[in-house]
Amino acid sequence: MGRIIYIIWALAVLAFVPRLTESAKILAIFPFTGPSQYICVQLYLKSLAARGHEITSISAFPQKTPLKNFRDITLKDEYKDHDEFIITAIEEMSATKLTQLRTLFDYSIMGSLPVLKNEEFQQLLRSDEHFDLIIIEVFCQDSLYALGEHFKAPMIGVSTFGADVIVDQLVDNVSPLAYVPAPSGTNLDVMNFWQRLDNLYTNTMELLYTHLVIIPEQQRQYEKYFPNATLRLTDVRRDFSLLLLNQHYSFSWPRPLVPNAIEVAGMHVENKPKKLPTDMEAFINASARGAIYFSLGSNVKSALLPKQKLQEIMNAFASLPVNVLWKFEKTDLAGKPKNVFINKWFPQSDVLAHPKVKLFVTHGGMHSLIEAVHHAKPIVGTPVFYDQYLNVEKAVYKGFGVGINFRNFTSTELRDAILEVLNNPKYTERAREISASFHDRPMNPLDTAIYWTEYVLRHKGAPQLRVASRHLNFLQRHSVDTMAVLFGIPLLLAIFLFYVVFQVLAALFSSNDNAHKKRKRD
Ligand SMILES: *[C@@H]1O[C@H](CO)[C@@H](O)[C@H](O)[C@H]1NC(C)=O
Ligand SMILES: *[C@@H]1O[C@H](CO)[C@@H](O)[C@H](O)[C@H]1NC(C)=O
Ligand SMILES: *[C@@H]1O[C@H](CO)[C@@H](O)[C@H](O)[C@H]1NC(C)=O
Q1: Matching Pfam families, A to Z (predicted)?
Q2: For 431-490, how does the pLDDT look when each residue is reduced to its tens digit (9 = 90+)?
Q3: Is 230 in the pocket of ligand 1 (CB under 6 A)?
Q4: How far is ligand 3, taken at its centre, from the CA of residue 14, in Å?
Q5: pTM for the complete prediction?
Q6: What is the rounded distance in angstroms from the CA atom of residue 359 to the CA atom of residue 346?
Q7: Last residue of a domain, one of 391, 423, 439
């Protein structure tokens, strides 16, 4: 009898244990122009598909071989000007804050319009297809944030460069300006007065530019392409269930995060490195003191660099006592030194995983920095634009890298920086320490991202994770109204009292005076 009661009790308990997530239909939109943003989520999306979820992925980078549970909507044609755009961006990034912001604006339009105009996407919008979840890249493509409401599905935002003041707004996260620097600047978390002033200025400019220029343009796109939407754009911008941030405190700094802003840096890295192609590994092996790997990432093409710059780089490499692997997008490079191996593509993470690869010469893109940290390799950083300056700055500050100026470095500078990191073991030691703290977490980053994604599915948008700030307007959110009462009323009272006392005293004195004069006359 007791046993039967126990079994009934156990079954009753089991009925309430949250069930495994059922397979869901997921729409993933990664409109950004560069392949590096897609690298960030490729493994994550594929893993979701492998777990039985049906993925519809909108990006410029379709799967080369068909994948189970994976459907691509390809944005190929819209991106033919990409290289040209990147070159302009590189030139302008050295200019003033305002020019940089304008470049950002062009980027933001490039992100949303090609999706909105895409015929297949338009069909999807008009179809009665149902989605359980929208996963969307967040970088000023606010009109696309309407998709959550359009498909009546919760939204997860992925920020490939981490949090900033604008991304914060999507889940009402906070970045205190006194110790959380803007990703587009060059300040670290410990700032002196002038750096804090600079951080305030950078963040204010970004906020103003976003609200005065980018959002009005996105508002026009929103009205044009989502004529049936009932929410205001300001509301869909706060309609996020979760934010996945490509950052981690181990290689940057600790910072406050709301419960639905999750750090997942490293989710794009395969846990087990693959074996390198034989020719690459043979070239690495042939170098007795280890080899180095040089790449400017997927956006900046080495092959498009000016001749002079290429010559400086080749001269530096030729003078090194080690072999160099160079990601170079053409098949021939006139005057290529014997110790250099060029290829238009390298399995970067697997190359960095190789024990004989000692150093990574990088542009400091977020993914490259994360892979260096993952594989405990020191860097020589030569940042080209946007968050790359700060990424390299972090590596220098944390002690696992040296930075040089991309615009004007000479072959001697490049060689000296490389030799400094190769010959001085302190850089590799720091890289190992930071890598150890990067890996020391309860769940690896990919599993973390999947766990929280399915958490949002299980809990129907997981409203329990969201802070209440989205219900407040600007004055309320910043306590301006309550502060006005708490400090304003006593202040008014004090002024009033002061006035009364002054009046009374004045009256007293003048009557005293009168009495005095009167007495004198008598
Ligand atoms: C808006 O609603 C109309 C009428 O219901 C429908 O025909 C149209 O396809 C909808 N447009 C979009 C973009 O959903
Ligand atoms: C490179 O060296 C490693 C270790 O000595 C060896 O296991 C590997 O087979 C070598 N690879 C090639 C392509 O020579
Ligand atoms: C390169 O430019 C930076 C700042 O613009 C300057 O500090 C540095 O000295 C320059 N280096 C060379 C080699 O000219």
Answers
A1: UDPGT
A2: 999 999 999 999 999 999 999 999 999 999 999 999 999 889 989 999 999 999 999 999
A3: no
A4: 67
A5: 0.87
A6: 15
A7: 439
Nearest CA to ligand 1 atom 4: 228
Residue 496 lies in a domain: no
End-to-end CA distance of the chain: 116
Domain, as residue range, for 122? 19-269+444-471
- Sheet strands (E) in 8-122: 25-30, 54-59, 70-74
In the reported structure, the alpha carbon of residue 158 is separated from the centroid of ligand 1 by a whole-number distance in angstroms of 28
Give bridge partners of residue 323 from the DSSP assignment.
291
CATH of the domain at 373: 3.40.50.2000
Q: Choose the final residue of a domain: 386, 417, 439.
A: 439
Work out the burial of residue 379: count CB atoms within 10 Å of its CB; fewer than 13 is exposed, 13-18 middle, 19 or more buried.
buried
Q: Is residue 180 part of a domain?
A: yes
Q: Which residue has a Cα nearest atom 3 of ligand 3?
A: 405
**Which protein residue has the closest C-alpha to ligand 2 atom 6?**
285
Q: Kindly state if the Cβ of 405 falls inside 6 Å of ligand 3.
A: yes
Question: How far is ligand 3, taken at its centre, from the CA of residue 94, in Å?
Answer: 13
The answer on 230 and 89 residing in a single domain is: yes
The rounded Å distance from CA 359 to ligand 1 centre is 55
